[in-house]
Amino acid sequence: MTTVIDLNIPKMAIAIGMIAIATSFSVWQKLDIAKNLIIATFRSIIQLIVVGFLLDAVFEIKQPVVILFIIFLMSLMAAREAKNRVREKVPYVLPIMWISVIVGTLAILAYTTFLVIQPDTWYSPQYLIPLAGMILGNSMNGAAIAAERFTQDLVKRSREIETHLCLGATPQQAISNYQTDAIRAAMIPTINVMMVAGVVSLPGMMTGQILSGTSPLLAVRYQLVILFAITTANLITALILTTLVTRQFFTPAQQLKLP
């Protein structure tokens, strides 16, 4: 069996040198991102260390209530981050984000857990938390892209939408093209990753498993499952989100209502 190479503190200190190089280039080229790079580096270090200790404890507890509560907190943070990326003011945008992200994630998480991986215990933290984290993270990005694109189009194209309404179109008919464009935009990053997986890049989960000594063929199978799960969850999330956002832009009398 392949021995996993330990990454001790001296090696991690050398790894941070890569950020020092990036920061130096930023200062040299006057990119004005050096401060953000440093803050992001320290945040990622602190957050991941805390998560590491937390997961270590959770793996020992193995209580479904605790694991589901962690996923609930993760979904709230994902919804908040996605909401912060939407420039237009939308009523109830945070609940809309959370509902979209959590429904899309849980639906595909359940499918993946019960039908594909089939662990001995469905709430096994070894599988459930990493899967939830990967799906949630990508659903968050998809939700943010879809919401930003959709709300921008609804505001900018308000006169066109009102014209369609005056001609007898329903709200859904009037905004269908914009909804489709928003969902397509949300799917572009995921589809791009799938298109070049194994040709241009090795996805993160697969790379991590190979580095930890897992058989490359087994790592490929796990990575494919993740890609399929992320893709479907993104689509479900974007569809739910655009549908809920639509309701905030129209009155019960089917008139356009800009926030």
Given the C-alpha coordinates, what overall shape results? Answer: globular
The H-and-E topology, N to C, reads as: HHHHHHHHH
Structural class: mainly alpha
Beginning-to-end CA distance, first to last residue: 60 Å
Low-confidence stretches: none
| Total of helices | 9
Oligomer: single chain
InterPro entries: UPF0014_fam (IPR005226)
Pfam families: UPF0014
Subcellular location: Membrane
Transmembrane segments: 12-28, 61-80, 92-115, 127-147, 182-202, 222-245
Quick take:
Its main location: membrane. The chain is mainly α and 259 residues long.
Structure description:
- With 259 residues, this protein is mainly α.
- It contains nine helices and no strands.
- The longest helix is centred in the last third of the chain and has 33 residues, at 216-248.
- The termini are far apart.
- 27% of the residues are buried.
- The model has no long low-confidence stretch (mean pLDDT 88).
- It comes from Pseudanabaena yagii GIHE-NHR1.
- Pfam families: UPF0014.
- This is Iron export ABC transporter permease subunit FetB.
- It is a multi-pass membrane protein.
- Its main location: membrane.
